[in-house]
Design goal:
Blueprint: E1 2-6, H1 12-24, H2 37-41, E2 45-52, E3 55-65, E4 70-78, H3 85-103, E5 110-116, H4 135-145, E6 148-150, E7 156-157, E8 165-166, E9 169-175, E10 182-184, H5 185-195, H6 204-214, E11 218-222
């Protein structure tokens, strides 16, 4: 199996990845084919696919922020069972991020991720019937990887830029040092305001969440 970066929509592997996304994610969560052109060319956005027998069977997108020495996982897709894809993607992503941090003269502090919480959400996330993408399974896998839930109620602005708040998720962090039990609230605020700067319409719930975070020094990391 190969771990290959995609940086152009003309890459034949991108079409295969986009088809995989459409098979797994709900239509409203899949960015239109042509709209991927600029994100793929952004050096800060890293999109890799797992290729097995000339077929894209998995993918992951993530970002490294050198100023804060942290990363963010945008998505991970395990398209087929029985190939240890989750481990393959996680290990290769970690090696890539470790190298980026070393080139930045540091050791990676950790990685953020938004994680579905099926225990509090009434929505059903079938993910194309791919059982390995079931939110209960994914949550447990991410817990095994070392992700922990940040102790505050989380919402994010809708990617449809309609000003609506999206709930049913936890905002989590995976520290490189397992002894880390809290992280600075300022880091969370700086990251979220930067990450969602592309969406001008922010819901009031999100604005309130940010203001509440600004009022505290640290946020605890809790079991996921």
């Amino acid at each position: 199996m190969e771990y290959i970066r995609i940086s152009n929509i003309e890459d034949p592997l991108f079409e295969k990845m986009h088809d995989l996304m459409k098979n797994v994610f709900p239509p409203e969560e899949v960015l239109d084919f042509q709209l991927w052109k600029e994100p793929l060319q952004d050096p800060g956005i890293r999109v890799f696919v797992a290729v097995h027998d000339d077929k894209v069977v998995g993918a992951t997108e993530y970002r490294y922020y050198p100023d804060w020495n942290i990363a963010m996982t945008d998505f991970t897709i395990v398209g087929e069972a029985g190939l240890s894809l989750g481990r393959f993607l996680a290990q290769n992503r970690q090696r890539d991020l470790d190298e980026l941090a070393r080139n930045n003269g540091k050791e990676l502090f950790g990685m953020f991720a938004e994680i579905y919480n099926p225990y509090i959400s009434n929505e059903k996330h079938d993910f194309g019937g791919v059982q390995t993408m079931n939110p209960f399974v994914r949550r447990e896998v991410l817990s095994h990887l070392g992700y922990k839930r940040l102790d505050f109620p989380y919402v994010h602005p809708s990617w449809q830029n309609d000003g609506e708040a999206v709930s049913g998720l936890d905002f989590c962090f995976m520290p490189q040092n397992e002894e880390v039990s809290e992280i600075p609230a300022e880091l969370i605020v700086n990251f979220l305001t930067t990450y969602y700067a592309v969406l001008p319409k922010k819901p009031q719930q999100w604005q309130d969440m940010i203001e509440n975070l600004k009022a505290v020094k640290n946020v605890a990391l809790l079991p996921l």
